[in-house]
Amino acid sequence: MKIKILISAVKDLEAGRLFYEKQGESLGNYFFDTIFSDIDSLVLFGGIHSKIYGYHRLLSSRFPYAIYYKIENKKIVTVWRILDCRKDPKKIVLALKKK
């Protein structure tokens, strides 16, 4: 499968990287690399994750973040959002409803 990352997910990723960079030197880069590693795993494992709010949800292996994605034509994994699981669930639902 191929992976497509929407601008909304890129913005989420950048916000998370900036947050973790403030927490410690190079932690932001580690966050970025970890999330991209998780996303890369979708080439093989896309579609096996449970659906939440109409999206497949992959939980990050190291950080409290979830990667929300959809499968298009059984060939393309489209990453819609990368959201902090510590947020209020109502805010997560609202973020997923935005287009």
Which features would summarize this protein structure in a list?
5 strands; alpha+beta; 99 residues; YaeB-like fold; 4 helices; 5-stranded mixed β-sheet
Give average pLDDT, whole number. 95
What is the terminal separation in angstroms?
23 Å
Number of domains: 1
Q: Might you state the CATH topology name?
A: YaeB-like fold
Q: What about the largest sheet?
A: 5 strands, mixed
Are there runs of 5+ residues with pLDDT below 50, and where?
A: none
Give the H and E element order: EHHHEEEEH
Can you identify the CATH class?
Alpha Beta
Shape: globular
Tell me what portion of residues adopts beta-strand conformation. Answer: 25-35%
Number of distinct helices? 4
Q: Numbering strands along the chain, what is their spatial order in the largest sheet? A: 1-5-4-3-2
User: How many β-strand stretches?
Assistant: 5
Task: Give the helix proportion (percent range).
Answer: 40-55%
Task: Give the full name of the CATH homologous superfamily.
Answer: RelE-like
**Secondary-structure content class:** alpha+beta
CATH architecture: 2-Layer Sandwich
Concise summary:
The chain has 99 residues and is an alpha+beta fold. It is 44% helix and 28% strand.
